[in-house]
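FAQ

Q: What does a record look like?
A: Structure on top, sequence underneath. For example:
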């Protein structure tokens, strides 16, 4: 597969090139840090061997000093990495893994089995395009080393004191999305950091450009690649990414903005089955002056809209709901009022997947999780 990270590719924006370059720098920094720690350990052992040999002791002291300087440089790069976290965005891993499956099977002969274990919205932070390319890199490596079949499984894992080998990593959280790549998933305490694996073939891959970019992508998001060494010499891999607990709507209105610009006295019908977002929506929309009506599913929304002709000004419609989903509800609402104003929303599908509804009259699409101020702006854009 041709590398996605071609910095001379004119189709990439400056922002995309910078993001890829940042991931490569992060990957190389962490690999260098690993190598420096190994060298430091070797030098500690050499001290006893050169005792009594002034020339050797002098060279050894110089090596230790140079390693110290190198460690300082790597430390500064690590600080830049933490600052770079601010550029990451919330992402749903389910969408990414489905995309990985489709792309991997399209561009190669690999047969990929995806087990989401019932998860539908798995939020973490990072860059979607880079994550997709990084997972495809791992899938391709495993498929070439095996029989062309790769299994991916998504789980939640707790990082605790029993995970002795993973204590060597710099994983700052306790709760992680664990994406295992291999025949099966093993207990987390059986994995070790990928750079500590006995599999020299994979470690060498990480030292080359595509591998470094893959590694740097996950490290940039405060995650890591881990490995399980089989007695047979085979390798199972896993990716650990921090779990982000978040509702579908985040943040209050920015006080710096002129809130009057986003105020209104119209009636908003909110159609969503996630009760954890109702309180946020009601509080903020009412604060802006709107009258808010709630519907828990599509059937409820259609009934409310039909019983209140001309009263509801805009409908915020979730796409994935029980009884009647958003797509079906949109069709029924259009039958009642051809000019109904509907704002679509979903955490499980991209805007492109709702393209037919937008062409058929839906006024906009908001991807969950979204900020409240973005919703307020979108409502005014639809109504004004």
């Amino acid at each position: 597969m041709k590398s996605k990270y071609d910095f001379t590719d004119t189709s990439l924006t400056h922002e995309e090139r910078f993001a890829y370059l940042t991931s490569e720098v992060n990957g190389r920094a962490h690999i260098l840090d690993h190598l420096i720690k190994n060298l430091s350990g070797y030098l500690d052992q050499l001290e006893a061997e050169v005792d009594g040999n002034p020339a050797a002791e002098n060279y050894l002291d110089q090596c230790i000093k140079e390693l110290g300087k190198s460690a300082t440089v790597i430390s500064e790069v690590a600080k830049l990495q933490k600052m770079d976290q601010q550029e990451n965005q919330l992402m749903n891993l389910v969408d990414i893994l489905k995309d990985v499956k489709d792309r991997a099977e399209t561009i190669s002969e690999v047969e990929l089995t995806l087990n989401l274990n019932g998860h539908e919205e798995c939020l973490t932070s990072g860059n979607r395009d880079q994550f997709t390319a990084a997972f495809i890199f791992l899938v391709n490596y495993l498929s070439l080393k095996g029989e062309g079949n790769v299994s991916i499984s998504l789980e939640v894992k707790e990082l605790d004191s029993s995970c002795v080998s993973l204590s060597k990593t710099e994983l700052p959280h306790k709760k992680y999305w664990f994406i295992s790549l291999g025949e099966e998933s093993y207990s987390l305490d059986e994995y070790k950091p990928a750079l500590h694996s006995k599999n020299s073939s994979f470690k060498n891959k990480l030292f080359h450009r595509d591998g470094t970019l893959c590694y740097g992508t996950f490290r940039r998001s405060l995650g890591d690649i881990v490995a399980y060494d089989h007695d047979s010499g085979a390798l199972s891999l896993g990716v650990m990414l921090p779990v982000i607990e978040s509702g579908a709507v985040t943040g209050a209105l920015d006080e710096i903005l002129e809130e009057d610009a986003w105020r209104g006295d119209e009636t908003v019908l909110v159609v969503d089955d996630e009760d954890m977002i109702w309180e946020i929506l009601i509080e903020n929309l009412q604060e802006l002056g709107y009258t808010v009506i709630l519907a828990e599913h599509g059937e409820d929304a259609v009934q409310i809209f039909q019983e209140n002709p001309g009263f509801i000004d805009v409908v915020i419609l979730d796409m994935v709901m029980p009884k009647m989903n958003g797509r079906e509800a949109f069709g029924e609402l259009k039958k009642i009022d051809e000019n109904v104003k509907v704002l679509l929303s979903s955490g499980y599908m991209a805007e492109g997947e709702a393209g037919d509804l937008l062409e058929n009259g839906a006024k906009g699409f908001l991807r969950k999780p979204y900020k409240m101020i973005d919703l307020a702006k979108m409502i005014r854009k639809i109504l004004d």
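Q: Is there anything notable about this one?
A: The chain has three domains: 14-84, 86-242, 249-383.
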